[in-house]
């Protein structure tokens, strides 16, 4: 801001200097001319004082801008995002205090302020996320497998209504109920279970695990990288070089 004032200040200084030169060239005799000259002199002094104040203000603004720019350069690159996050957290804390003072539930008040468009956008964003974070332990892997299998189950509501009419309250067992041998699965249910098991077996067969090291294999490499290269070369060109390799091993190569 201050740097933009300097060209105007220099132009005004040049105009004042030109006026002084013109007054030196044209001198008017008499008291009237002296009063007019004095008035012009006061006007020039006033304008000089104004220019001096403007220059001081411009230098002050330039210094402040230099200090602010140096502060911004010293800040971390993600400072703006952190600052916005902190301001948002402060606003959330203030809203929670206001809701607690009024005896209201903050989560309910927050949901009332969300528009339908934002709610739909968040739901779509949640569906796009992959909930599988990878292997952590066997219990978590088993739980993910159980949830995946239960999501695939499509309940037969008609059969459920028939069983409820047939057994009544006995359909909902308690700790005193005897269940062993009382349930006979239907043929459709057994077929669904068999189809699901076959699908799981087929999926497991597609998994590729690291092959174990073979101690009896020929060592034709100098390091692990060279071994990988030799395996690829054998896979693509082995059938063309098999005879040459055999001749070299027998010592009959030409």
Automatic annotation (TrEMBL):
GO CC terms of this entry: catalytic step 2 spliceosome; post-mRNA release spliceosomal complex; Prp19 complex
Renumbered residue ranges of the record's region Disordered: 16-38
Presence of keyword Electron transport: no
Pfam families: SYF2 (PF08231)
InterPro entries: mRNA_splic_SYF2 (IPR013260)
Keywords attached to this entry: mRNA processing, mRNA splicing, Nucleus, Spliceosome
Composition bias type Low complexity, residue spans: 28-37
Superkingdom assignment: Eukaryota
Localization per Swiss-Prot or TrEMBL: Nucleus
BP-aspect Gene Ontology terms: mRNA splicing, via spliceosome
Chain coiled-coil ranges: none
Main location: nucleus
Ranges of biased composition (kind: Acidic residues): 18-27
Cross-referenced PANTHER family: GCIP-INTERACTING PROTEIN P29, PRE-MRNA-SPLICING FACTOR SYF2
Function of the protein: Involved in pre-mRNA splicing as component of the spliceosome.
UniProt subunit comment: May be part of a spliceosome complex.
Family, similarity comment: Belongs to the SYF2 family.
Protein name as it appears in the record: Pre-mRNA-splicing factor SYF2
Source organism of this protein record: Vidua chalybeata (Village indigobird)
Lineage summary: Eukaryota, Metazoa, Chordata, Craniata, Vertebrata
Encoding gene per record: Syf2
